Amino acid sequence: MLLKKLNSNPKLALFSGFFFIVFLILAFWQATKGIEKERLETKFEESLKLEPKPLTDISKQWDSVTLEGSFDFSKEILIDNKIYSGKKGYTVLTPFTPEDKEFSTFLVDRGWAQHPYISSGASNKIKEAIRGVMYIPEKNFVVGKNLASENWPRVVQQKDILFLESIFGSKLEAHLIKLEPANPNTLAYVSLIPSKISSSKHFGYAFQWLLMAVVLAFVFIKFINNKDHEQ
Prior knowledge:
Blueprint: H1 2-8, H2 10-48, E1 53-54, E2 64-71, E3 77-84, E4 87-98, E5 105-114, E6 128-135, E7 154-156, H3 161-168, E8 172-179, H4 199-230
Helix pairs in contact: 2-4
């Protein structure tokens, strides 16, 4: 009976079937992304609960680490267009060169500063110990030619570490270090998040696509039933 109704409306059946499958694929894809993000969030939360450990060559994303070295406040990089408490400003990245020569310079995320920015660094090249969380900045899409200002501190739009390395002019470690709130060099502290899109949002999107598939199927079946009654 159903097959007969489908054969009587081949174009509508093909159209509805195609988008029904597309909606289900999109729902499955978003659900899969949600599961991945949920695992990432769990790993992130567990890492933050651990006591900081000295930086080693096996330290990785979200590890809390300690290291000794010195800041260079003369070559800071400012990530532009960061809004905090309704105010425009920057994420301030300050170079930190470890005492351990096994590592290159790290860019330390000292937090948010309001525009216009005036460096709060009291001095350069003084050895100190810092604690923070290692993370890799998410890439962002930027359009335009003027991606960095000419003078230090360099104001940039792009957060990709290879681009930041080209701005800095020498080798940088792939991870940034989010400076702990208690450090006197920390500015307005903005908590880290493991991803821009949370697992709950992905699950919400998956539910929306699944709902659209169900609604499409319901409308299609109702339509062909009504058309059958009319005949």
